Structures are given as C-alpha cells and as structure tokens.
Amino acid sequence: MGECEAAEAKVSSMWIYPLKSCRGISVPEAALTSTGFRWDREWMVVNARGRACTQYVEPSLTLVEPELPHEAFTEGWEPKKGSFLVIKAPGMDVLKLPLVAPSAISNGVSLMEWSGSALDEGDQASEWFTKFLGKPCRLVRFNEATENRSANPSYVSGYHIKFSAEYPYLLVSQKSLDALNEQLEEPVSIMRFRPNIVVEGCEAYAEDLWKEIEINGLTFHSTQLCYRCKVTRVHPETAALGPEPLETLSKFRSNKVLHPEMKPLGRIYFGQYVVCTECSDEEKKKSIRVGDSVDVLKMVSSYAHVSV
Fold it and tell me: pTM of the predicted model, to two decimals?
C-alpha cells in the first residue's frame, strides 16, 4: 500500500441518499452543510413505534428510488412551491412530496441512540410506505429547527448529522472496490457500501491511512474506519440477501487482521468516515464536484495509527 499522490487523486463520483436506507442519487456537484451533503439522509421511514426502518430489517428499501430536481444539488438553491421529492418503487404509484417543509410533527422518533421529534410528511406518504412494506409506517423529515444529533462523540466533537448512522461523510476509493471484486466470483457495485465520496487515482485501501485531505479548498479529517453490517449483503437491484461481500472481506479486512492487538470484536471494515472542518463557516463557499483533485495533506504509515 502506497501513498496517493495529490496530482493523481480526484473525486470520481458522489452519492446522496435523501431517504435513509433507500437508493442513492449520483450527482456531479454537491453542496456541503454542517450535517453532511445537503439532502443526505434528510428523510427516514419509521414504524408504528417511531423506530427507524432500515435495510437491516427491511432490505426491500433498496428498491425505493428518490428523485430531486437537478438544481437542488447546487450551492444556494432553495425549493419553490412547485419543487418536489419524487419517490418510486416497483409495483407502486409515484409519490410526490413538496420540498417545502411540512408543519406536522411526529414525536417519539428514534434512530440508534437518538430520540426526538421530526417533521411528518403526512398520510399520503404513510399510506405509500405502509403498502410497500406491508406494515404501518410513516415518513418523517429531520427537524433542524428543534433537533440536534451529534456525530460519534467517541471520535469527534462539535460535528452533527441528520439521519446518517454516525458521521457526515463516508469516503472510499474505486481501487478498493476493484481489489475486492478481483476476489469475488460475482463483482459487486459501489452501491453495496453506500459511500458519499468515491476517489480514484490511488492504491487500494490507501484511503484508510489518510488523516487529512483537501478537496476544492475544503479540509476533511478522518474519524474512523467504517465497519460493515449485513446491509452490504443486500443486492441493490433485487433486495436479495447473500453471503457476499462480507464473507470475502472477513478474510482480510477484519479488525483481527488490521488491528491484531485488539480484542476480536468481529468487525469488518471498508471505507473511512470523514468530517469537514469548514462546514460551520457561513462565509465560505462549500461545494465539491466530480473531477475535483483530492490532495492528501496528512497520512499515517500503518494501521496501528488508524482508528477503528
């Protein structure tokens, strides 16, 4: 594994997931906010008890495809009265929801360790997801006016997220995926890993060792490697659950291999979580584009210095 030269590395694709655990949108440009890419994990499906519905329990969510206006991903754009979030899925009518925030509130919403209130997208959305999943559900939107979710405080402080798992951004390299696919009988797509930023032009798993990078004048710091759950085993086009890629990754990407001095927690890693240090600066323009250079400012020499 070698260093990724700044002149070679660049952003090859970016992904935003407006609905948690549903299909992502590939974008050429993305505006950054204090909680991650704008629109990322802004909505979430919850069950009758207000608990988050994710692919971990409902793999068919991978078939739900959200759409936003193309201009929604440009910096400074604001929704108009005729701007919609459009949601599609096999066998379902198209659902259109105004992007102007609703006024109704759902209390008792919970995700992992967090609980609070969220904006409720109404009965039409509730009926749509109830029919699709076959159980009572509602669609909620993160309420920035009243709620605050912190990124994992064990590794960073002062950073916030919406309905993401633990951090604002997940970064992986294309070569890491290529190296994995060389060992698989059936190659998997990058969508198994649900990244926000994909980088090309570096060696496989080089991104694990990056501590600080710069993209379009914005500085990103590493937090910890991303440990993967069975959601990576869900086929994004069929929702079928199989053993790969976790079975193969476990042979060379587990904490037992990367951090042999640690207790065998059984975690398997792919990708690195990062935070953007300038996102709280209201005066600074904050967007990145496919093709932007990725400059590695700091990196470590071994996994002994990598947080997992």
Answer: 0.95
Residue among 259, 185, 191 at smallest CA distance from 225: 259
Q: Give the pair of three-digit tokens for residue 160.
A: 């916030």
- Tens digit of each residue's pLDDT (9 = 90 or more) over 250-264: 999 999 999 888 887
Using CA atoms, how far residue 120 sits from 46, 56, 108, 136, in Å, is 10, 23, 12, 14
Whether 296 and 9 have beta carbons less than 8 Å apart is answered as yes
CB 133 within 8 A of CB 58: yes
Q: Which two tokens stand for residue 132?
A: 């699709």
Chain segment 197-227, per-residue pLDDT in tens: 999 999 999 999 999 999 999 999 999 999 9
**Contact status, residue 41 vs residue 52, Cβ threshold 8 Å:** no
Bridge partners for 119 per DSSP: 105, 141
List of residues 6+ apart from 200 with CB closer than 8 A: 9, 10, 12, 173, 174, 175
Measured CA to CA, the distance from residue 123 to residue 113 in angstroms comes to 27
Asked if residue 235 lies in contact with residue 213, where contact means CB atoms within 8 angstroms, the answer is no
Order of strands, edge to edge, in the sheet holding 197-200? 25-27, 10-16, 197-200, 169-173, 269-276, 218-227, 210-215, 294-299
CB neighbours of 148 closer than 8 A, spacing ≥ 6?
160
Nearest to 294 by CA among 7, 2, 26, 75: 7
